[in-house]
Design goal:
The chain has 110 residues and is of the alpha+beta class. The protein is built from four helices and six strands; from the N terminus they run E-E-E-H-H-E-E-H-E-H.
């Protein structure tokens, strides 16, 4: 069964200098495996292709059922601070990505 990431996790994005961090925090520990399997760096980059034009790194934080994606801006690109795109759009957009989960996992969500 497919559902949006927003049903499985909280997402937060922030910028520091040339870097954008996107934190994905699962609402339940049991969602972590599905989210980790579905959110590869390639899939995140492809989903945010109009916003991300360089490599995306992924860090796994299993003890807190979270993932951290980092996008480092290329020096040739315009500075994020000067960009008209608010950093929050990265999180808002990622919440829409579809994730395949076991139907039983969603039924037990509380």
């Amino acid at each position: 069964m497919k559902t949006s990431l927003g049903n499985l996790a909280h997402v937060h994005a922030y910028q520091k200098g040339q870097r954008i961090n996107i934190g994905v925090i699962c609402r339940k520990d049991s969602f972590y495996e599905s989210v980790t399997q579905e959110l590869s760096t390639g899939r995140v980059k492809s989903f945010l292709d109009d916003l991300v034009h360089g490599p995306v790194l992924r860090y796994e934080l299993p003890k807190i059922a979270s993932l951290n994606f980092v996008y480092v801006q290329n020096e040739v690109q315009t500075d994020f601070a000067a960009s008209p795109i608010p950093v929050d759009i990265f999180a808002e957009r990622l919440l829409e990505i579809e994730i395949e989960v076991n139907e039983h996992e969603l039924e037990n969500q509380s």
